[in-house]
Specification:
Layout: E1 3-9, E2 17-22, E3 30-40, H1 44-48, E4 60-61, E5 66-72, E6 85-88, E7 91-93, E8 101-103, H2 112-120, E9 129-133, E10 137-139, H3 157-175, E11 183-187, H4 192-203, E12 207-212, H5 215-226, E13 234-238, H6 243-254, E14 261-264, E15 271-272, E16 275-276, H7 279-285, E17 292-295, H8 306-311, E18 315-318, H9 324-335, E19 352-354, H10 359-368, E20 376-379
Parallel strand pairs: 11-12, 11-14, 12-13, 14-17, 17-18, 19-20
Antiparallel strand pairs: 1-2, 1-4, 3-5, 3-9, 3-20, 5-6, 6-10, 7-8, 15-16
Helix pairs in contact: 3-4, 3-9, 6-7
InterPro entries: ADH-like_C (IPR013149), ADH-like_N (IPR013154), GroES-like_sf (IPR011032), NAD(P)-bd_dom_sf (IPR036291), Zn-ADH-like_protein (IPR051397)
Pfam families: ADH_N, ADH_zinc_N
Domain Alcohol dehydrogenase-like N-terminal: 29-141
Length: 383
């Protein structure tokens, strides 16, 4: 039987190991993808060493969203061809009840159905090949990777992996129906998903007020995206130490324009038993009447300004990941040049490539190089 290299975790929270295991085979509704590159989220180390206590079954092959080429197709595939360049989406949903959701090789989700599903689909993309349900495979135009002299966009594989990062906040922005011309608060805007949220909201035609504690990253966002979008479309506001001064700072940044929406993508550390970061209440208090909030952060418990939410008719929606339609729409935005990547108008920094054998260094780098662009990924197959 043909074998492949795969980065596996044999026991929960124990170090990963590079193993030789059989190449998976196709099945009805399941294709096999040859992995070219796989993304690493900033807190991957905390997932696999057990710090985040994400529940998932072991043994498994670790992984995240990835880019690959179709290696083998099942007989019931109707749209894909062998060799196609594809994105692999980590958001796996039950076929007979899509409300059961888990993230491939990351977390088993929160229902009995999602837990059961992950027991079956437990192997992720940190391997040379991966078995993937057809509905988690999105073909992508080759012209994105083609050189400029061949009429292509000349993107690097790391630029394309950034699209996976963008899928997440795009899910929340779509869910609260952000429209061109609207103004949105994004906080914190300095992390991996937060900075991507700023980039997409701008690309969708919105005006963005981006909040963060790290002034250097806010400045980097402003300088990277400032030249791509008209002046005034992106304003940055430092996170202050109390809600009142934060509201004043937001007001000053917004000028006379009402603020329509707020996307929160805070990490759990912004909401501890000692209290919550003041930006959360301040952003909600700054919304216009009938404003919308998308809660995408990882916090467990929050305190809400209930009276304001009620009297101002605010809508608050939680969103985990994104819908298939969102992924397709965002890919179209990238293919059509509505959202530019890399040097063309995206992050100035590119993620750093690592081999699977360098997983420890890769996870450390992803954790240290947080912000707009940057981070780390595994280069696995030849492009
Ligand atoms: N809903 C979903 O589908 C979904 C999907 C993926 C992730 N998430 C959640 O989103 C969170 C953010 O992800 P990420 O990749 O952007 O994380 P990240 O790259 O680690 O960034 C975290 C951001 O939070 C800021 N921050 C940290 N502590 C803070 C505090 N006490 N007050 C205010 N800001 C603070 C950091 O800025 P500093 O430079 O100031 O530290 C940084 O900008 C994750 O922790 C995860 O739980 C949700």
């Amino acid at each position: 039987m043909a074998t492949m290299k795969a980065l596996r975790q044999l026991e929960y929270s124990k170090p990963l190991e590079l193993c030789d295991i059989p190449i998976p085979s196709t099945d009805t509704g399941t294709a096999v993808i040859r992995i070219l590159a796989a993304g690493i989220i900033s807190y991957t180390r905390d997932i696999y060493d057990g710090t985040r206590k994400y529940p998932y079954p072991t043994p498994l092959t670790a992984g995240s969203s990835a880019i690959g080429r179709v290696h083998a197709l099942p007989p019931d595939s109707t749209a894909l061809s062998e060799g196609d360049l594809v994105f692999i989406d980590v958001t796996f949903r039950s076929r007979d009840d899509p409300s059961h959701v888990f993230l491939s090789a990351i977390i088993q989700g929160f229902t009995a159905g999602s837990k059961k599903l992950m027991t079956h689909w437990r192997d992720g993309s940190y391997a040379e090949y991966m078995a993937v349900p057809l509905e988690n495979i999105y073909p992508v135009s080759e012209h994105l990777l083609r050189s400029a002299d061949q009429g292509g966009m000349d993107y690097k594989i790391g630029d394309l992996l950034y699209v996976h990062r963008a899928f997440v906040p795009y899910g929340g922005l779509s869910d609260i129906n952000l429209k061109a011309g609207e103004t949105i608060l994004i906080a914190p805007a300095t992390g991996g998903f937060g900075s991507a949220a700023v980039h997409i909201a701008l690309s969708m035609g919105a005006r963005v007020i981006a909040l963060g504690r790290n002034k250097a990253v806010l400045d980097q966002l402003a300088s990277s995206l400032g030249s791509t979008f008209p002046p005034g479309r992106l304003v940055t506001v430092p996170i202050t130490s109390d809600a009142d001064s934060q509201i004043e700072a937001i007001k000053a940044a917004a000028g006379n324009i009402p603020i329509d929406a707020y996307l929160d993508i805070s990490p759990p550390s912004a909401f501890t038993s000692e209290g919550q970061s003041p930006h959360f209440k301040a952003c909600i208090m700054s919304l216009r009447h009938s404003g919308r909030v998308s809660l995408m952060g990882g916090q467990m418990e929050v305190t809400l300004p209930h009276s304001r939410v009620m009297h101002w008719n605010l809508s608050i929606r939680g969103k985990w990941m994104y819908e298939r339609q969102d992924a397709r729409s965002l890919i179209k935005m990238v293919e059509g040049g509505f959202m530019l990547l890399g040097e063309k108008g995206g992050p100035e920094k590119s993620p750093k490539a690592f081999a699977l054998t360098e997983w420890k260094k890769a996870f450390d780098h992803a954790m240290e190089d947080v912000g707009f662009g940057g981070g780390a990924y595994f280069k696995i197959g030849e492009y």
